[in-house]
UniProtKB/TrEMBL annotation:
Belongs to the aldehyde dehydrogenase family. It comes from Coprinopsis marcescibilis. The active site is at E271. Keywords: Oxidoreductase. The keyword Oxidoreductase applies. One of its GO terms (molecular function) is aldehyde dehydrogenase [NAD(P)+] activity. It comes from the Eukaryota. The keyword Chaperone does not apply. Residues 36-494 form the Aldehyde dehydrogenase domain. This is NAD-aldehyde dehydrogenase.
Length: 506
């Protein structure tokens, strides 16, 4: 049974409507649930109004989507198409996303809250580049020929697509995270069951239309919006899913890993939380360091797993740096994403809004000093203005726990050794930054920092050809770069005997 259910989403501020499909996307068709009437409401965080509702997938719907992905893997995708064909389709998809970038950005702003300008130029621009980068890899998946005995045998390796992949993406970068997951998986020949966040399902459904238009065979990409405890849990435990890729909280990552282990020991990659340190040494260009530190906490309204949420400045420059930092953060405009003057939007939901304000109140109650922000707005919308705390202590909640909002802790250090100790005093290890004009110090400190990504004299800038991922409780596996291909392939060794005769019995 198929359903052409769509909704015309009205954006009165722009005097336009965007047509959005609201069904589950399985086998290149939008359809209702097989056994549930449940819906997911998509809310505009700038107005707190419901945009529309979409079908919520049940556990049985996940079974249907996985079966479609398996059928495609065995027949029209997987090892049945050449790298050239996969590359061509990825390039076509990138072209279509680029064509529709403005509309996708407007839909992203409506459902996620981020500014249209940033969604279009950064998130979508980067996603198009990501698809094209992996399109370039699709016909370059190679193994090794290995010498065993030149007179009698040799071995070679094949990097086979791992199979059906469950991909669970978060609400902070709905289009970008979609591309990061989809591109390497498709490049090597995997098929996908994609579960977008229940908070931001709209752009994943809109992208699914483009998947079909690009010409991907039915079942190669399936999109199943659902509640995490339903769809995410069903994918993680599914016996016919070969791989789970998840971006989100460490708490949920643990559950996924447990479910994967208890079911079929499927391969797992996890990109989880962070409490990333940002060090400013006395030799740094303080003006630039303040700019990057402001970006590190204000970008995407702080809803970033690599948010530089703990900044430590050397005592000799602390006062000057703090003055500059406050000035820079004050300049950030937090407002409606449909306004071109806006640099960041509201946080994504009421749940997130309450969570962030809970941390701000905890910071005040535990004795940290508010030097900027910390006051609620009277207006509608889930707005949190950037808040900076000083006089922090290592045991404070705001210093230890991931907040996922524009809340910054600023501390000081005296020596390089102390800076490294403070930076590494966390259960996380996703990102870290340092600012210094001493080249030897940059090498020493970047080596000592316990993080999957270290930025030197910049922050939060990623490239599609450079791997990204965490250490410690920030996860395992890597996205981006050639390293991501390893997450979606399994290495098969083939031993070929052409000259050795076996004598029997032994």
């Amino acid at each position: 049974m198929t359903s052409n259910a769509v909704v015309d989403v009205n954006i009165s501020r722009l005097n336009k409507t965007i047509r959005v499909p609201t069904g589950l996307f399985i086998n290149n068709e939008f359809r209702p649930s097989v056994d549930s009437a449940e819906r997911i409401e998509a809310v505009n965080p700038a107005t707190e109004e419901v945009i529309c509702s979409v079908v919520a997938a049940s556990a049985r719907d996940i079974d249907v989507a996985v079966a479609a992905a398996r059928e495609a893997f065995n027949t029209t995708w997987g090892k049945n198409v050449t790298g050239w064909e996969r590359s061509k389709l990825l390039h076509k998809l990138a072209d279509l996303i680029e064509r529709d970038a403005q509309e996708l950005a407007e839909l992203e702003a409506l459902n996620n809250g981020k500014p249209v300008r940033i969604a279009r130029e950064i998130d979508i621009g980067d996603s198009v580049q990501c698809l094209r980068y992996y399109a370039g890899w699709a016909d370059k998946i190679t193994g090794q020929t290995i010498e065993v005995d030149n007179k009698a045998k040799f071995a070679f390796t094949r990097h086979d697509p791992i199979g059906v992949c469950g991909q669970i993406i978060p609400w902070n970068y709905p289009i970008n995270m979609w591309a990061w997951k989809v591109a390497p998986a498709l490049a090597v020949g995997c098929t996908i069951v994609m579960k977008p966040s229940e908070v931001t399902p709209l752009t994943s459904l809109k992208l699914s239309e483009l998947v079909k238009e690009a010409g991907f065979p039915p079942g190669v990409i399936n999109t199943v919006p659902s509640l995490g405890a339903v769809g995410g849990a069903a994918l993680a435990a599914h016996p016919d899913v070969d791989k789970i890729a998840f971006t989100g909280s460490t708490v949920t990552g643990r559950k996924i890993m447990e479910a994967a282990a208890k079911s079929n020991l499927k391969k797992v990659s996890l990109e989880l939380g962070g409490k990333s340190p940002h060090l400013v040494f006395e030799s740094a260009d303080l003006e630039q360091a303040a700019n990057w530190a402001a970006l590190g906490i204000c970008y995407n309204t702080g809803q970033d797993c690599t948010a530089g949420s703990r900044v430590y400045a050397q005592e000799s420059v602390y006062d000057k740096f703090l003055e500059l930092l406050v000035q820079k953060v004050k300049a950030q405009v937090i407002g409606d994403g449909l306004d071109d003057r806006t640099g960041a939007g509201p946080v994504v939901s009421k749940i997130q809004y309450d969570r962030v304000w809970g941390y701000i109140e905890a910071g005040k109650n535990q004795g940290a000093h508010v030097v900027l922000g910390g006051q609620k707005r009277d207006s509608k919308g889930f707005y949190v203005d950037p808040t900076i705390f000083t006089d922090i202590k290592p045991e404070m909640k705001i210093v230890k726990e991931e907040i996922f909002g524009p809340v910054l802790c600023v501390g000081k250090f005296t020596t390089e050794e102390e800076a490294i100790r403070l930076a590494n005093d966390t259960s996380y290890g996703l990102g870290a930054g340092l600012h210094s004009n001493d080249a030897n110090q940059c090498m020493r400190v970047s080596s000592a920092l316990e993080a999957g990504t270290v930025w030197v004299n910049q922050y939060n800038i990623l490239s599609n050809n450079v791997p990204f991922g965490g250490k410690k409780q920030s996860g395992m596996g890597r996205e981006l770069g050639s390293y991501a291909l390893e997450e979606y392939t399994s290495v098969k060794a083939v031993h070929w005997n052409f000259g050795e005769k076996l004598e029997w019995p032994l």
